[in-house]
Amino acid sequence: MSPAPVCFPRLPLSQAVATWQDLSRKSLEEITEFAGAVSTAGAAFYPVATGRCTDSDLLELRQAVMEAARAHGYPDVGRGKEKTAFDQAVSKILYEKMNILPSDATSVEVWNFINVRVLPDVVIWRYGRRSIDGSRWEVTEERLYSMKRTTFGRLWWRACLLGPDISQRLAEDESVQLIERPLITGYAPLARAIAIRHLATISVTRRMDLLRDAMKRFTRRLVVVSVFHMSDSQLTELVDDVFRESQEALKAEESRR
Amino acid sequence: MRTVSLGHLVLEDGVIEKPEWEYSVNGRVTQLSDGALPDWNYFSDVVASCKVTVNLVLVRDELKLPHDAVLGWVLVARSSASNIITTSPPQAVLDGVQEVSLLVPASAVGGIMTLELEMALLTPSAAQSARFAPSKVGHTVYRHSSKLILEGDAGQLPILPVSFRDHGIKNPEAALWWLRLLSKDLHDAVEATLWMWLNTDNPQLRPLIDHTESETGDVWMQVLKMDFIRQLLREAVAHPDLDPAHDYPEGSLGALLLGVVRLIGGSVNEVRSKYADDPGRVEAGLQGVVLGSAR
Predict the structure, then answer these.
(1) Structural domains of chain B, count
(2) Is B11 within the bounds of a domain?
(3) Pick from B104, B119, B149: which residue ends a domain?
(4) Beta carbons within 10 angstroms of residue A173's beta carbon
(5) Residues B185 and B248 both lie in one domain
(6) Å from B135 to nearest chain A CA?
(7) Do B121 and A229 count as a contact with CB atoms less than 8 A apart?
(8) Which of A49, A146, A187 sits opposite B192 (nearest CB)?
(9) Interface of A with B in 70-99 (CB under 8 A)
């Protein structure tokens, strides 16, 4: 039996901003040293958390993510492809290593802690750059404090909603198309059926166009049809039907050009 | 009976008596307190039960549904915090009193939980259906919803002290603040969508950042509040998808923008029209409402 899920430390926005401002003026080596000393001591948790992660949980998580980062080129600047592959690998690592309660994972303060206290050096490698005057590291605020774009939180949610194996196979754009439509992706059987259908699309040059078009059609269909009454095979049939419609619509659009 | 653009018949209000809801937390029946479930926390399983009475003959008649078609109930729980949707297994609609229950595991919820009882076609008729009768699996004919507040959802506007110089703003020592809209999705939570950035490079803003309780900080806060609502109004009138008839989740951008429009009074289209004619006048009216309520 797997151990009961736990809660993670939280870093309020004001503290996260102050910590980051301080860190951003340090060298990468100093930031790595700071993150390597991460601890739960004095950290705030969900007030009635009965299970809390330990220092070793944090360090193990850090080690696993660092290994994945190194395997994808850390600390070198690297190419976009490697970083996409890193995201895909880390999505599964976070989901499997953290064992965090989904309710707790809805708090952006948890992800502030992960970004700024546990893995700031990896955030810098993934999204950072030196400022023009060379005085500090720059990372956009969205990657640090926004629930939607937070560096690690969005990858964890991807694995939670789509399943770790599927999320590992999706590129950033594809995941965003699926994840940022909560009325669709919140229902795991549908989200997974769409993702599987999308991944089965073989060498279609306009694969992303097809997914975008299909997602719009799903949004419209779900007003009329309840997917919650469908069996898995009926759901697959619906998904195939919508993708077929999209394919035909795109073909028709191409032929008009 | 009404025909709707859905393409099939749905049940008119009143055909199904208003369902009765009951909630249990960790196995104990719990009474709601102002819409909230007391004693709920991240480790509490919630069971929602809905007792509903159906006159199946009347329902079939209203929907022009053949006798071999089967309708089903499903209870759907949506969590505003996690977006995770949990559902009960479909069960056939029976004549008389029926109970539909759903266990929502503790780990799947947070914020506000919206529960929806849905009746839809489970098995279509083998025979030719009447023209507008529901004919495909999942064709929804009835919905009834209930909301449960699980944890405080008082949306807080994240305010970040940020160096505008670092963001390449010209004359960074003079700029004040920046309302950042991270998404235009009307269903997104406000706290994930809006950020108010305060410029740390402007020395005049220090009271607002460091001493919000001070008199100067208070004056700045009033001005900021007014400007913030003014910008939201501008966003509301410009947003092409803002629909007053839509039930946006509490704490969402859509609910916030509709709230701002209601401050002016009138429908969204009326406010849009007034704003197009004379935005200054509309904003002056907004100042009266916002600053008047602050007194």
Answers:
(1) 2
(2) yes
(3) B149
(4) 13
(5) yes
(6) 11
(7) yes
(8) A146
(9) none
Q: Does A12 touch chain B (CB under 8 A)?
A: no
Q: Which residues span the domain enclosing B187?
A: 159-294
Written as one letter, the residue type at A140 is: T
- Residue B78 contacts by C-beta under 8 Å, 6 or more apart in sequence? A186, B84, B85, B113, B114, B116
Q: Are residues B7 and B144 in the same domain?
A: yes
CB contact under 8 A, B118 and A186: no
Same domain, residue pair B133 and B174: no
CATH number reported for the structural domain that contains residue B82 in this entry? 2.70.50
- Which has the closest alpha carbon to A19: A119, A157, A90, A131? A119
Of the candidates B116, B149, B182, which is a domain's last residue?
B149
In a domain, B154, yes or no: no
ipTM: 0.84
R_g over Cα of chain B: 25
How many CB atoms within 10 Å of residue B98?
Answer: 17
pLDDT truncated to tens, each residue of chain B (295 aa)? Answer: 343 466 889 998 889 989 999 999 888 898 888 888 887 888 888 999 999 999 999 999 999 999 999 999 999 998 877 778 999 999 999 999 999 999 998 877 777 888 999 999 999 998 877 888 999 999 999 999 998 888 765 445 677 888 888 888 888 899 989 998 888 888 877 877 888 888 989 988 877 777 666 777 778 888 888 898 999 999 999 999 898 888 787 778 898 999 999 988 888 889 999 999 999 999 999 888 887 765 5
Q: Could you tell me if B179 and B267 lie in one domain? A: yes
A185 shares contact with chain B (CB less than 8 Å): yes
